Amino acid sequence: MTMKKILSIIALSIAVMACGGKTNLETALIQAGDNRAELEKVLNHYAVDSLKYKAACFLIENMPYHYYYTGEEVNYEKQFFKMLHETALSPKVIADSLNRGRMNEQFGRTELKYDIREVDSVYLVHNIDWAFKVWREQPWGKKVSFENFCEYVLPYRVGDECPVEWRERLYDKYNSLLDSIRLKPESVFPWIVADALLDSLKKRSPRFVSYSYAKHSAGPEIADWLSGNCEDLADAFTYICRSLGIPSGCDEMLMRGDNNVPHYWNFVPDDHCDAFFCSLLYPGPLIQSHTYDAPRGKVYRRMFSINRDMMKMMSQPPEKIHPTFRYPLMLDVTDIYSDCEQTICIPESRFLIRPERDELIYLCLPSHMEWVPVAVSKYRNGQVSFENVDGNAVFCLSSYRDKQLVPMTVPFWAHKELSYFRYFGNGEGEERVTILHKFNLFIEPFIDRMVGGVFEGSNDAGFRTRDTLFVIEEKPVRLQNVVYVSNPKEYRYLRYYGPAGSYCNVSEVGFYRDPNDMVPLQGRVIGTPGSFGGDKGHWYMSAFDGDPYTSFDYNQPDGGWAGIDLGKSVSVGKIVFTPRNRVNFIRQGDKYELFYAGKGGWISAGTTVANSDSLVYNVPKGALLYLKNHSGGVDERIFEYVDGEQVFW
């Protein structure tokens, strides 16, 4: 968003705040300017229908905080989702093809428009009438309160998309999916109906991609395309549910507690102020929200209505509030997802910089080397408190000064259940750390496939008789894993045999005659022919090509192996193997820089070029660390060093 657009939104918000003493509806009508007459037509149209009148008031009084963009860039973004749906091309290829058409100087220009000044009476009446139609005609509508109807069925938009008519079209397209359950007694429960709908939509194979191309919401067409990232698919399900009168919306983590990205999914409210978790991405039925297990920190529900309680708490001019919370169209729902939420209270003594009186302080989670605000509170009486925080994550407190976040404390870890905080060291004493990778190994899906793998020796080419040299019992934690063999017997044929279900995934294997040898034994590469998908770059020969970033990927889950025929019998004293990997381990020849969190931000501990599969640094004891690969790669994450091992957060 350009500075001009930001200032334009701020100006509108200041004008809204300046209308003191007036009702929310009166304030909105003043902000409508020349569009006021259109909105008053809607109110007059429903003057004799008290419930629809209240619904119209709900929409109009919250319109000042909704806006959208028009322009060629927005149109190109829609093409991205359409091509995802219609082709098998990778998102990167689609993006590259679209970017070639974005070269003219007019392309990036978008126009910002406000709902309150643009939405006309015909559009609004059509939206309200259709929302009421499905609410009243569907059996599950009896279980949807007017309050939930207003927030989770009635809204005409889900993000910053251009308002267009969509309800009738999506109703006609998807209503028949519920014909069978509509006749059953349990159809009075919206969450049961949503579960049936979700099951039907999953059979249409929604296409998930982690690649983010669009800056703006795709709009209701995303419900046709069912393609995109978790936020796009959440929008799609929201549109479809609301077109059918099922209350639903999007819950989100502004930032995950264990990764560098936000996360989005759907919810359907139940009868007990709780909700059901649902997503087009997850297998299985709807589940109660508190059983969805993920490091959360904070969870918010996207709302059409502005959170006036939060605005009252902040009570600051918009430009002094971080953009994330400047217009809080959100509701804190952490408590319905966590059984262990707690209050985080930080005293003044823990601040590196003394906060000003009533200054807004932000609870932040990390994303790479940045801190992302996930909650806001005021500094009062020598402390700041944040309620309903889900722990087992690393946080930092920041203020928003001169249009940027300023760290106010050293990072700290909050316990999941107890009101216990552990602050990371920032300078007291040093320790030596050995670093093997730059991100949590859970993003390396292939290393688990080596557990149970066997290295074998034989003097029979068919390995009908064979001896076990070593069994991998734990997942590898580094690029080059060394095993010493004490068996003095000599073998002509040596191999790695993958465990069941592993597709014999392995990147590199080296057999050495003597434990001190630096050059592996040479011979004719042998193995089970074939690779997954017919990709010849993943045949068994890749396990002996000397490249730790090529790999064997057998075409069957079981029975794959890769080996070597030495031509004569030789004893083996050492085995070195590399798991199939995604370049997360330390790469020889790459340039790295280690940082530690110190007073006021990240401090470099030095830059080095890796000459092996590990790095060694001296850093402040107990510090929070971050390793950056300047040579490439994007997956990097904060960690600490505990008992000789990296522990990622």
Can you walk me through this structure?
24% of the residues lie in helices and 27% in strands. The protein has 4 domains: 72-109 and 120-294, no CATH class; 340-423, Immunoglobulin-like, CATH 2.60.40; 430-441 and 585-648, Immunoglobulin-like, CATH 2.60.40; 445-578. It is built from 17 helices and 33 strands. By secondary structure, it is α+β, with helices and mostly antiparallel strands. Strand 20 and strand 21 form a beta hairpin. The model is unreliable at 1-7 (pLDDT under 50). The protein has a 6-stranded antiparallel beta sheet. Strands 12, 13, 15, 16, 17 and 18 form a 6-stranded antiparallel beta sheet that branches. A 5-stranded antiparallel beta sheet has the order 21-20-23-26-25, with no helix packed on it. Helix 3 (36-45) runs antiparallel to helix 4. The protein is globular. The longest helix is centred in the N-terminal third of the chain and has 17 residues, at 121-137.
